[in-house]
Amino acid sequence: MQINYKLAAYPLLTIDPFISIWSYTEKPYTMETRTWFGQNKPLTLTATVDGTLYSLMGRCKGLPHGEVETIDVTPTCTRYGFACGGVKVEISFRAPHLLDDLDLLSTPVNFVDVSVVSADEKTHEAAVRFVWHDEICRAGEQTEPMLGKDYQAKELHIAWMGKAQQNLLCHSGDHVSIDWGYAYMAADADVRFARLGGHWGLSFERVWQVNGDKQTAHLLLGYDQVADIQYFDLTAKAYYARGGKTIVQALHEMHARRAEIYGRLDALDAQLLADALRVGGDSYAALVVASYRQSICAHKLIADKDGKPVFLSKENDSNGCIGTADVSYPSMPLYLIYQPELVRGLCRGILKFANMPAWKYDYAPHDIGRYPHATGQVYGLAADAYGMGVCDKVRQAQCYPPLYLDEGEENIYDHHMQMPVEECGNMILMLAAAAKADGDLSLVREYLPTLRQWVKYLKDYGEDPGEQLCTDDFAGHLAHNVNLAFKAVYGLAGYAYLMEKLGDKAEAEAYYAESRRMAKAVYEKAKTADGTALTLDKQGWSLKYNAVWDVLFDLHYLPEEFFINERETYIKKTNTYGVPLDSRADYTKSDWILWCAAMSDDEGTVEAYSAPIARYMAETSTRVPFGDWYDTKTGRIEHFMGRSVQGGIFMPLLKDKWLKK
Predict the structure, then answer these.
(1) Predicted confidence band of residue 199 (pLDDT cuts 50, 70, 90)
(2) Beta strand 124-133 with 146-153: parallel, antiparallel or unpaired?
(3) Which domains, ranges and CATH numbers included, belong to the chain?
């Protein structure tokens, strides 16, 4: 078997947090394909060659299986090659994840190609069957009545299926599947809605006489959620449908544009892999391959009432929050490289909610709801937020109420469970980075009073943060957090940059001066013989990932010795599978390691930091979509899989692009 990049799990269908299907093995005939969180959502592939039936994908008990010869995975495509008798069968899964084309990016359709070719130059009869089972339309294991149909429509044969009883947006949460909407399969022929044992499914079947020429069938798999996101008072569909485009129109368009889209995807794959290899070698390229589709499909892109893009992350394998600021922040390097408007799309929901009566703090919110309901922050709710005495009763319910409508005088949030410095710094830095990437200041102008309030909070409380949470909240509250103080420093500098671009020279100079002063003060308190401490009272040590903005904004606040000492410390502390997050535990965050890699100009640093993470992906016993929080000694994930934050893996590539520019 040849595998160009060995991953812990392989992306197949990658549309959004609900339609995210993976293979957790290099032998896909040994288990069902699954969601990012492990629920079975079967895609099955079988081939009959000269009368012998082979199982290729999905568990088919009692059948011989084809041998996996190759697994080739790129940022946008996963391709398998199987040997079945004298025939080679290939199947590829390709996502239209072109970040510079928001309509294409948000179209809920993926491409699947199935091909057969003779492996021995003899003629064979080969029949291939590919099935998308009806579990995709159901949230649980129960069997429910299904509706479906197949029909010819111009050049396409289309089949669809969905539950007979639909209840749109009927639940929210973390490890939950969608059970509303309709699955679609389309090809030029041979697709149908059919009964498959005890279930229904969408099926493609074709028979070829195979000799010297490869025979290929092109399929489209799509999912129309009908209602995708509840965005405050707007029930929104995906961005592509903002002008009324239907899923059927999208299928026809994707079919007609297949060659063009494939050409663009191939060009993206080639360039991205070439850049990754140049910047960080083969190990870094493996991380890029593992992260690209995963980060994108952990979001949903919609349009607000003004048609502006709103890019909504989901806190996968955490608490299911939607639009979380400190999840958006680590993910942004990928989107800054290809589409800075998506970074503003990450910010729009937080800015909107922060200006509603329900949010009473002078710092930034954490999130705007629980996926797919963006109806007000759910993190850190007060125990009596609903006047019930115990908030857990509501947390266990299907959906939170519309929290954004709360106009009561009492605060429904617990201040102790918020992330004040963290989120203020995140929001300002995201907006500043997006403005640096493309010069667009429109969102900054719209919410300037809010940003002034947040930067004042950073100025007043950021230099020596009190006991509070940061984005690494799993580690608990921490006072005098050096990394959090650095976030305040560069939040002030980011605000100064925005003021400079807006032409407010006096305010820009004042905040540049204050951020420079604060940087010096924080560094002096944090400096130790080996680098910098975890806390300002010189206890422990930690990854200083927030200091990367000193490099990216060309600020030179920190002396060269800081970056040299940090690199030496991290290399010295590295375990089998990476450098720990800090001195408190052996676990780490892979995204933050790559942010730290971008702080060094030493050739080989990115590769040195990437190699242990690539080893973790290849050797971990917890076979799940690229887990970002894992133990650096055992290689087992602590938690967190399939998350959007792996867009942070692209930080060295962002640095490469910005500094060359």
Answers:
(1) confident
(2) unpaired
(3) 2-256 (2.70.98), 270-660 (1.50.10.10)
